[in-house]
Amino acid sequence: MTISTDGPSSGTSGAVLARRSVVAGAVGNFIEWYEFGVYAYFATTIAADFFTPQGGGAAEALVRTYASFALAFFFRPVGALLLGRVGDRYGRRPALIAAVLTMTAATTAIGLLPTYATVGAVAPWLLTALRIVQGLSAGGEFGGAVALMTESAPPGKRGVYGAWQSLTVAFGLLGGAGAATLVTSALTEGQVAVWGWRLPFLAALPMGLGALWLRLRLAESPAFVRAARADRVRVRIAPGASAKSTAGQAVSGPAAGQAVSGPAAAGESASARTVFAVVVGCGRLMAWSAAGYTFLVVLPTYLQQTVGRSAQQALLATVVANLGFAAAIVPAGALSDRLGRRPVMVTGAVLAALSALPLLHVVRAPGSPVWLTCGAVALAGALVGLLAGPGPAMLAEMFPTQARHTGLGVAYALANAVFSGCAGLLITELVRRTGNPDVPAYYVVVTCAVGALALATSRDDGHRGALRD
Question: Which of 149, 179, 191, 209 is deepest in the core (most CB within 10 A)?
Answer without folding.
Answer: 149
